[in-house]
Design the sequence.
C-alpha cells in the first residue's frame, strides 16, 4: 500500500508431487491475502541429464485434477477470463 503496488506472487512452483497442492496449499494462502497476480513459472521441459522440470501440471500429472478444482474456484481469474472482462481498456 505504501508504495502503491499490487501484491503479486511472481514465481512459484515445483514438481508438484502433492496431488492436492493447488487447493490445500496454494489456495488457502491466496485466500488469506489480497494477491492480485500469480504466475506459475516455468515449463522448461526436459533437463540436461534427464528428468523434467515443470511448475504447473500437465494432463495426467499427479496434481492435474486438483488444478482443475483450483481453476474452477469462483474467486480465481485466468488469462482468458481477464480478457473477457476487458480490464486493460
Sequence:
Amino acid at each position: 500500500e505504501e508504495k502503491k503496488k499490487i501484491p503479486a506472487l511472481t514465481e512459484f512452483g515445483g514438481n508438484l508431487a502433492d496431488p492436492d497442492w493447488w487447493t490445500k496449499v496454494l489456495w488457502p494462502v491466496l485466500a488469506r491475502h489480497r494477491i492480485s497476480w500469480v504466475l506459475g513459472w516455468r515449463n522448461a521441459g526436459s533437463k540436461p541429464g534427464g528428468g523434467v522440470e515443470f511448475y504447473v501440471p500437465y494432463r495426467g500429472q499427479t496434481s492435474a485434477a486438483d488444478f482443475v478444482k483450483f481453476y474452477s474456484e469462483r474467486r480465481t481469474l485466468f488469462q482468458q477470463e481477464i480478457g473477457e472482462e476487458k480490464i486493460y481498456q
Remarks:
- Strands lie at 8-12, 37-40, 45-46, 52-53.
- The two ends are 23 Å apart (CA to CA).
- Helices lie at 21-32, 64-72, 79-85.
